[in-house]
Design brief:
123 residues; alpha+beta; Rossmann fold; four-stranded mixed β-sheet; extended
C-alpha cells in the first residue's frame, strides 16, 4: 500500500516493438534465404485505424510493412469503427486492387476479410 502523503504515483511508459513490422522483416529475411527451413508467413495482413488521410496512410503502411492486404478503417465515422456494431472498411491489396465494403455488421466485415485472405492463400 502506498501512503497518500507520498503523492500520486507516476507510471512511465515505453514504446513496444512494432509486431507487424517484425513479421514483415522476418518474412523478407526468410524469403531471401534460399533453402530456409523456417516457415515464413504466406500471407500477412495489417489494419490501419485512421481519422484522416485513410487511403494514403493505409497504402503507405501496406508498402512499408510488405503486407499482402491491409484493412483501412475510418475511425472518425460515427456509424462505423469503435463503440458501434457496424463498420465500413476499404481493403487494399499488394497488387494495387482496392475493395470498399459498404456499411455492415462487424461479423460480416470479418467474414469478408477471411474470404479475401483465403483467396490469397489459394494463389
Amino acid at each position: 500500500k502506498m501512503k497518500k502523503r507520498d503523492g500520486i504515483p507516476q507510471v512511465e511508459l515505453e514504446a513496444t516493438e512494432d509486431i507487424l513490422e517484425a513479421v514483415a522483416r522476418q518474412r523478407l529475411a526468410l524469403s531471401e534465404v534460399e533453402g530456409s527451413k523456417k516457415k515464413r508467413p504466406k500471407v500477412t495482413v495489417g489494419f490501419a485505424a485512421e481519422s484522416q488521410n485513410l487511403l494514403a496512410n493505409a497504402s503507405e503502411k501496406l508498402k512499408s510493412k510488405d503486407l499482402d492486404l491491409i484493412v483501412a478503417n475510418d475511425i472518425s465515422a460515427s456509424d462505423a469503427g469503435f463503440e458501434v456494431e457496424t463498420n465500413r472498411v476499404t481493403l487494399l491489396f499488394e497488387n494495387g486492387k482496392q475493395e470498399s465494403l459498404p456499411l455492415m455488421s462487424k461479423v460480416e466485415v470479418a467474414e469478408t476479410i477471411i474470404a479475401r485472405l483465403a483467396a490469397l492463400l489459394e494463389t
